[in-house]
Amino acid sequence: MELKKNKMLLAAAWGAVISLSMMRISPGLFYTPIYVVALFAILNNENRREISNLGKKLPAFLLYFSFAVASLAWASSVKLVGEALREDILTPLLAMTASFYAAQKLTAQSTSRTLLLGAWVTFLLGTVFSYFKNGATDTLFETVGYYSSYVFFLAGASVPFLSSRTRVLFYPIVAGLLFLTHQRAAWIVFPLFGCVDLWLNRENFPNKKLLVTTVVLIIALSVTLLKVVAEQKPVDSSNPEVQAHNLAERLAKNERIKPWEDWIHRGMESPLVGQGFGRKNVENHFSTGDDWAEKNLHHAHNIILNNFLQLGLLGALLYLAAQIQLIRFLLQHKSPLAIGAATVVAAFFMRNMFDDFSFQRILIVYALILGWCIGGIRGKTLDHTKEN
Questions:
Q1: Nearest-angstrom CA–CA distance, 68 and 49
Q2: Which of 8, 213, 314, 353 is 20 to 30 A from 122 via CA?
């Protein structure tokens, strides 16, 4: 009993670490426990074997990472590629390893609700502090784009664990937090959570028409909120004279469409292998080291396009293959942790079709949540193996 209680407390603490890693605070508050646990994970023989076995099940990721490292050979700036490899791959992998190990030691199958509670409480306290002190969430959470992604991470991981009581609180809280960001993309991703929740609880809808009607209502609500948010913004922030008469026209005339086209043309300079891994490396190449106008977008604001620029068509295809392979791997397992992880992956991918948050901090949070979920899945597999 005491051991179970200690595991619950440690799981809540690890959830708090996940949320602290989202905030603009002293890095030592979250890096220290992450690196300490990662060290124990690396020194543990059984954990190393599990990580190795996981890598064998996800070969597309290994190929993608290897291709990113190989891009040092043709990169515009070897230094910037090296920094990107450390920030966007190595450090998140350490975070994932730490959370993978923590999930197995803390029996994630039975402590995940406690971890999510610790993460949500810490995140909401940070939101309240930031909002009432500064009138905005981005002061503590870097940007509203980062903030909305953090909401997606926690919401996606939580959906499979919802009960009839928590569901009543969950959707208003998530919708309210997303509304604070005034992000159009938020309402494109939001229906995903409702649809996954409905699919998981489809037995409660013996009438299929009722199920379909509920899905339609969720999508209609999201479109309505998207319209409200879009109408609060200029159609094209770089050209105030541009006007639109409806939501579809507003989205079609968005200020990012022209820069997207420009980035595609730039990518055709090296269409097969790109300019080398890392956003800063790509920007440095095309700006020739000079200042880059804000209207050009400092990166392509689209994860597929950014991969095309960095690693060419080969890299973009490898990235897509890795994402598909990861979701298929997760959906092979029927556990709430697996479905939660798959929802997080899908939500982050959808979000990154309109931006590309390939920065160290947000990828650390992403890796911590995925590491916990996958570690819990693998831990359950290990337990069954030992019993047999």
A1: 24
A2: 353
DSSP state for residue 89 in the 8-state scheme: I
Query: Tokens 């700006």 — which residue?
Result: 287
CA distance 94 to 86: 10
Residues 23 and 142: their CA atoms lie apart, in Å, by 7
The token duo for 108 is 């994630």
Q: Estimate the crossing angle of helix 45-57 against helix 59-70, to 10 degrees.
A: 90
Residue 353 and residue 81 in contact, taking contact as beta carbons nearer than 8 Å: no
What's the pLDDT tens digit per position in 110-166? 999 999 999 999 999 999 998 887 776 777 888 888 999 999 999 999 999 998 889
pTM: 0.92
Residues of the chain with pLDDT under 50: 382-388
With beta carbons less than 8 A apart as the criterion, state whether 58 and 325 touch: yes
Read off the tokens for 47: 């954990």
Euclidean distance between CA atoms 343 and 363, whole angstroms: 16
